[in-house]
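Lab notebook, bench 4. We co-purified these components, and the gel suggests they stay together. Before we commit to crystallization screens, I want a quick structural picture of the whole thing.
Request: model the full complex, all chains together.
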Amino acid sequence: MKRIAVLTSGGDAPGMNAAIRAVVRNGIYHGLHVFGVYRGYTGLIQGDFKELSVGSVGDVIQRGGTILYSARCDEFRTEEGRQQAVEQLRKHQIDGLITIGGDGTFQGAKKLTELGFPTIGVPGTIDNDINGTDYTIGFDTAINTVIDAIDRIRDTATSHERTYIVEVMGRDAGDIALLAGLAGGAESILIPEVNSSLEEIVARLKHGADRGKKHSIIIVAEGVGSAVDIGRQVQKATGFETRITVLGHVQRGGTPTAFDRVLASRMGAKAVDLLLSGKKDMMVAIRNNEVLGIDFDEASGQKHHLDLSNHHLASILSI
Ligand code: ATP
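Here is the predicted assembly.
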């Protein structure tokens, strides 16, 4: 193996740059030429490759977003598009590819391996919705962003004695809502993995008000539904003054936390090690603080596991 390439695809996540840096530097350390592919699978099909030097990834470990840019590429979903991508990889004499992204990115990567091209995935998504890994790059930063917002909202919620409904990202997964809700002391956490009735939410709010609580914060994962609709229902059922905050894309940006930088550095470097050891179709994962490679089949297209004991704990701690 002499020449490898790296790309970022799907939704961006804080820490992707730290992962790119680790791929480039660990690759060069082992005597490889490392190429960056711009705009994910779109750049792969169009042949938008550029060799990356040690210095080209300087001063990026602390930056959010991705210096390689990201894209969603419908052409790559077609057989023809993927054939073009493989042709470009061969034309540039690339021996192995590292894709940093989410589940969709890995479904695409798996198809590249089926065409005989060695590909290793690195999980980079704020949603933490990939099976087989305890954490994905960007998740820790995203929950810290949400906690910061909850703390600020809590101040104004108390001053005005209001109920706040805060909608957070996560696609179909409740990971962001659950951990940010637990760490932020939310009164209720609504996630797709747990059915919560309006009656339950209302009972908790009334119980809190009866014991003198001046504010309430309800966290809603986007996979559950619209915070606006839930807010209307809650206000109608309780008569409490209710406000809605949809955090949106602020959760995708910002400086990666130390946890995400360390995770990204370890995972990016591991992806290079896997290619060098002859592995062709794996995703890098972290389990019990060990970074390892797992089969794409275990990671991609599978429902990921969320530890619901934290949901039970949050409901006990917010009585
Ligand atoms: P995030 O979870 O952060 O949104 P993601 O990687 O899941 O990231 P997607 O938009 O689902 O984001 O996928 C990224 C790209 O991967 C798509 O634009 C497409 O080019 C490719 N891709 C997704 N699914 C497939 C598939 N089934 N076959 C081939 N390519 C795919």
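Residues 140-252 form a domain with the Rossmann fold fold (CATH 3.40.50.460). Worth comparing against the SEC data before the next meeting. The longest strand covers residues 281-287.
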